[in-house]
Structure formats: structure tokens, C-alpha cells
Amino acid sequence: MNAQSSQTSSSSLPALAVRLGAAWLATGALFKLFAGSPKLLPPLVVDLSPFDLDLTFRLVIAVELALVVVAILRPRAAWLPLALLFAFFEVVLVSQALAGAESCGCLGDTVKMPPAMMMAIDGVLLFGILGTRPWRAWAGTPLFTTGTLGACAALGALVFAAPWLVIAGATSATTPTPNGAAAPQARYQVWEPATWV
Predict the structure, then answer these.
(1) What is the pLDDT along the chain (197 residues), one digit of tens a residue?
(2) What DSSP string runs through 85-119?
(3) Whole-model pTM?
(4) Which one, of 70, 80, 68, 62, lies nearest residue 150 by Cα?
(5) Exposure check for the chain: N or C terminus, fewer CB within 10 A?
(6) Please, are residues 183 and 177 in contact by the beta-carbon 8 Å criterion?
């Protein structure tokens, strides 16, 4: 086996692990995008975010989808952010499990997933990424090539915008329009009782 085929073989397992993690991340992000609402965000995430609930919800989805694109197109550039994200998920899930949450909310309103089960899945994926030692397999290789950088930037920007394109404005309501038709109803309303007088 020559050096080039050995290098390809040693980097294919980390790439597979990263792409499997990205596929699972995409599953959760798409559930949130099409069927979720900010009420499903873990309290720890809400507390740590400097933004309001609606913007936090959209940013969570946007970041997850953008990372999925990079992980699929260029696993070399995504393994560390993906591993850190899964490690953060583990912290969030532990806090939910300790609080007695019945569902982590990771898959929207329709699919109930106990935090302990999601913790196990995320833990296996995190172990898979770190267990393939990507830092050694990709040592000396650039984060991006010229072609992948442009593709990641273009597709990443597109999917980053998806939450604003797909989810109706949280503050919109059904009100008469000038021609008498009803305006589209938002999927959810963000209420902030703490600001009420």
C-alpha cells in the first residue's frame, strides 16, 4: 500500500464519523425548522443566549444547518466544531435529565425523545468522531481547498437563512389586509410575561 492510499484510508473513517454526526444534527435541525417552536429550547440554552427567544431559536437552527453543510462538504474543517457542539449537547441533556424533563425537544413537538436516550445517541456520535482521531488523520492538510471553501460559503449562507425564510414571523397574527384577505398566521407566538405590567 503506497503512502497516498494509506493517507486516504486513514482519513476515510474520520470523514464517515463526521458525516454520520452531521446527518443526525441535520435531523434535529430540520425537525426544529419545520415542526418546532422556541418553547422546546432547553432552559440552559435560553439562559446563555444574549438574544430574545425567537432570534435564539432561529440562530440555533441556522448554525446547526450551516455546520451540517461544512461537515458534508469538508469534514476536515467541521470535526472540531461538531465535536464541541455534541459535547455541549451532552451538558444540556444532563441538565434536562436532572430537571426531570420528559423530552429533550430536539426533534420538535411531534417526536418525544427522553434526554437520556438523546444523551446516549449524541455520546456515541461524539465518541465516534473522537475515536477516529481526526487530528492525526488530517494532520498537515488545509482546512479548506479552493473549491470547497466557495461551496461551503455559498451553501452555508443559503441554509443559514432558512429559518428566516421558512418560519413565519413570530409576532405576526391573523389580521385583515386591505383587500379583506387574512394575513398568514405565525406558527408560534413569543410571550414575555416578565415584561408585562
Answers:
(1) 444 444 454 579 999 999 999 999 999 999 999 988 888 888 889 999 999 999 999 999 999 999 999 999 999 999 999 999 999 999 999 999 999 988 888 887 778 899 999 999 999 999 999 999 999 999 989 999 888 899 999 999 999 999 999 988 654 444 445 555 555 567 777 776 666 66
(2) HHHHHHHHHHHHHHTT-S---TTTTTS---HHHHH
(3) 0.82
(4) 70
(5) C
(6) yes
